[in-house]
Amino acid sequence: MKFTSITALVIYFFAKQAMGAAVAGNELEGLVARQSAPVAFNVAVAGKGSLRHSCGTGTTITCVLAPGQSCKGNFSPAQASVVVTTAHGNCHVSLYPQSNQGGGVSQRLDTDTTGTCVFTNVATWKSYGIFCD
Q1: Which alpha helices (H) appear in the chain, and where do they start and end?
Q2: Residue 89, class by beta-carbon neighbours within 10 Å (0-12 exposed, 13-18 middle, 19+ buried)?
Q3: How far apart are the C-alpha atoms of 4 and 17, rounded to whole Å?
Q4: Res. 119: pLDDT tops 90
């Protein structure tokens, strides 16, 4: 009888430890989800009239990522204006003059530039990267 009680106690203890680890894993997933950062920006090609008026009228690109991750892509056609519409945390948008993030960063928009239109006279940017620290 004692052997059965001791065995049951040992099984209970290990099962409780395993359940605690599962809860900790769920808590970790929730923490990662809360730390994910939404970033959205709008780009537009050169249009009629002032390029400043093109900001907000083109294509919106959105990405939700955690620190240390990135979202990258190409524009087709090349874009002439950009405005960051949503930024959270330590994120920034880098714009490149060549496809596949080539040619070096020609424009970097940090989180404090949200709502500010940046534009060029000709369609300059062919790719982007969104990065969060």
Answers
A1: 2-35
A2: middle
A3: 20
A4: no
